[in-house]
Amino acid sequence: MATLLPHVNSVKEKALQTFAEKFGEQAAVCVYAPGRVNLIGEHTDYNDGFVLPMALPMITVIVGKSHNGKKTRILSLSDVVGDINEFEFEAESRADIKPGEPKWANYIKGCIANFICDVSAFNAVIVSTVPAGAGLSSSAALEVATYTFLETLSGKKPEKPELKALACQKAEHDFAGVPCGIMDQFISTMSKEGCALLLDCRDLITKQIPMLHLDNYVFLITNSNTPHKLSSSAYCERRDCCYEAAKILGKKSLRDANMNDILALISQNASESIVKRARHVVTEIQRTLDAAVALEKSDFQQFGRLMNESHDSLRDDYEVSSKELDSLVSAAREVDGVLGSRLTGAGFGGCTVTLLRKDAVDKTIQYMKAKYSGTPTFYIATPSGGAREIS
Ligand code: NG1
Ligand code: MG
Question: What pTM was estimated for this model as a whole?
Fold first, then answer.
């Protein structure tokens, strides 16, 4: 059986009750932001390419209230925070806020520091159902929830939602030290229920792709429960390889490269790893565009084929899969009714996403469990809406 996700209301109730117990009054503001699963377009965001994620029913809720004191106090019930689940700080202005310990608080501090104005001190409680370290963007959910909380608290919003996503990305770069692309913060901010989002990471133009006629099909997320280590050098090393390939080709980014450029890299004696990394990015950008067309036409067979090709390229050319992810993907593909399966997120661990017929879900889960050496968790991914205030 797939894990049942708690409804927004029950997550909200838990946060409100904890706030009342902790701070002795009722919270005045309640918001949430979703995690996401990337359907296709992996390691393309920082190459100015296309991505095609959708928001999940897994969410991060923040409830709170401003006060006249100086201290901002935050309690997190998320199970990843470690021993220190509370922190407080004082700052004269947002420019004085600096990253520090505990680490999880840096995402929040980074958003306050990058908000459009100073906000008064507040108390808040955070509850999240997005698993961390799984490639489902728990960090972006926390950032975008924080930013949405600040908007509601202050009654001020940036002129365009794009600026909100960019401010959250800056928080992740400067305060969490993760040089991530723009995909995660965008989808958590902009997603619409029932749609995937095609995002052009070069000019930040978005297109909502309604998932019509999905009726008989569903996306299944499988958490390998082998956490990925993102800030580990592997992500940055891949990124640098891509920048190096673009530099050799005299292009601004690999977005501007094609298969002839891959041949040019070979003839210029670029290293094998540079050629392979670049080939993944060039082919993955095209696959993402093709997948968006397939989804618009409700051609799920074609969408599934592209997912398979994406995984194989991530495994062989980008070399970011793991034996756990490969075994989950191979097992899924063996089941009748599965259209495609791939790793999702940065790789090295985390989750896979599988497109399959609804009536094949139970037997697929059973088969994957039997074939996998570890203990996987399964979630049904329904395309959900973006960050918002909950009344
Ligand atoms: P995950 O592994 O889902 O956190 C990371 C990056 C994305 C993108 C993907 C690879 C962070 C926070 N996110 O996603 O921007 O580059 O890898 O497609 O680093
Ligand atoms: Mg993350």
Answer: 0.94
